[in-house]
Amino acid sequence: MNNETARPTKMDEELDFRVRVAREKRERMRQRLLFAALDVFLVSERTKPPVIDDVILKAGVSRGTFYKYFDSLDEVLAELGQQMADEMIETYERIFAQLSDPAAKVVAGPLLSLTHAGMQPQKVAFTSKVDFVGYLSLSKRLGSIVTACLNEAKQSGAVHFASLDAATDYIIGATVEGSRRMMHNQLFDKEYLHELVLLIMRGFGMSNEQATQAINIAWEQLNSHSDNLPWWH
Predict the structure, then answer these.
(1) Which residues form a coiled coil (predicted)?
(2) Residue 66 and residue 128: Cα distance in Å, rounded?
């Protein structure tokens, strides 16, 4: 019996190429619609609620094309929210995964979120239109990151808490409220950011000096990657 795998014919290769090109074309159009929708929502935030016609006009496509990819604007919002959540998690992993200081790893999450909110308040304000926090909280990747960071910091003696759930809610709650304040003020207030993160870490039993050191380590790491962050200014 011949077990050799049959080589693809020229016709098979051409078919595979056409399928791949069609798939890439569909994905480009989907992203085009998503980017157009985000632009429309950002511009319309202070004027009027956007409608599908606004999105297709911005994207330069027909209504029929829109409905090939999405059933409604709510579906567009949901996908944008998921993408933003994934982007935030990927940014954290890319920048802070190699940190060796356990406390700095805990600080890094709030520091990244608050800095983003202060430097790009208009886009971050858009997350209030979607269940951005919900997407983050349901993310298994984020859950594993937060759990690992908090447990590592606790085992090292850097932070103290009894309930992991309470510790997680404490960090997320303070970060969300701080982000809302910075978005409302439309201003990157580094002093406020530093004070809020300092208070978060003091709540875990760290001294002022220990918390400040952790913040400085995380900030230096974030700042060293600023050239690769499109929202940094």
Answers:
(1) none
(2) 24
The C-alpha R_g of the chain, in whole angstroms, comes to 22
Give the span between the Cα atoms of 10 and 22, in whole angstroms: 18
Residue 42, CA atoms < 13 Å, CB-side half-sphere: 13
Which range has the top average pLDDT, 37-51, 87-101, 171-185, 202-216? 202-216
Res 59 pLDDT > 80: yes
Least confident stretch, 16-25, 36-45, 133-142: 133-142
Q: Calculate the CA 91 to chain-centre distance.
A: 7
- Asked if the structure places residue 2 within a domain, the reply is no
- pLDDT greater than 70 at residue 91: yes
Which structural domain range is residue 30 located in? 9-70
Looking at the structure, do residues 40 and 117 belong to the same domain, yes or no? no
- Are 91 and 131 in a shared domain? yes
pLDDT value of residue 172: 82
User: CA-to-CA distance for 221 and 61, rounded, in angstroms?
Assistant: 42
What's the CATH code of the domain at 36? 1.10.10
In total, how many domains does the chain have? Answer: 2
Cα 169 to Cα 184: distance, rounded to the nearest angstrom = 22
